[in-house]
């Protein structure tokens, strides 16, 4: 594994001088043993890597208070807004051929792909400020609630760095260790990222086309059903019985319980009932298979509904129609600056 340490070691230590070194965290020596035994890593290099990894309490703080604890309307407002819609339309217009191809290959609608990237990183403009090595090391060895998961992600990150020749001490991402334009966890990067621009290299850090194809491939692999609904607002709803909050029923069965979608839906379609608190009270939705596929990206009904509603806003506006309203004398850069 080629790791550039000497050139940036001093700078990394200077910037993180007020942080505790992670090498002393329980479990790291055993993890190094496993990586050497299982994947034939160089022991001295791994020891050096973890000597430079920093324990980040801020990571624990951030993951312990996710944004989904906000009220629904505040959460939605943060993602379904003029800035993301306008930038999304510019992104869609710029990559229309690529998005059409992704939809054709994987069956995922273009607006869903654009919405996911918009929610995740505002089209690559906000990819995270945490060093991925620090975030994953902290969570793997100092976050018992999900230590097994993050230990596996740390393992995949080291393998990914080896495969992609990433610099372990400079790569930055989210507090959970997600990286790149679509914010893939390392295991997802290795499993689902694709070379969609045909340059024989997979690059989710810089290549928008690769990000587009990879998001579509990810959703496809988790069971996206082409030409099937995501969610339908219901005329009314009921509080789920204990243990049945995520139970799928046919439209016929829901109708017997007094729940019907506003838009006519085939009686054999299955969905579960979700609700959101709005100004008028409860808003009920019937969430279909594709809604739950979106939750595989982020296990939150708030997240899935935000992606869906941003996608609907983008689709309603339409990239060509929207850009036609922009003065021909204005560049994309000027439009982006205006909506920031």
Task: Describe the overall structure.
The chain has 340 residues and is an alpha+beta fold. It has a domain at 19-55 and 128-179: Helicase, Ruva Protein, domain 3 (Orthogonal Bundle). The protein is built from 17 helices and eight strands. It has helices spanning 6-15, 28-39, 43-52, 57-64, 72-79, 82-94, 96-106, 110-121, 132-142, 147-164, 186-192, 208-221, 251-256, 289-295, 301-317, 319-324, 332-339; strands at 20-21, 54-55, 130-131, 172-173, 231-233, 249-250, 270-278, 281-287. The protein has a four-stranded antiparallel sheet. The chain has a two-stranded antiparallel ribbon with strand order 1-2. The chain has a two-stranded antiparallel sheet with strand order 3-4. Helix 6 (82-94) packs across helix 8, helix 7 runs parallel beside helix 12 and helix 8 packs across helix 15 (301-317). The two termini are 41 Å apart.
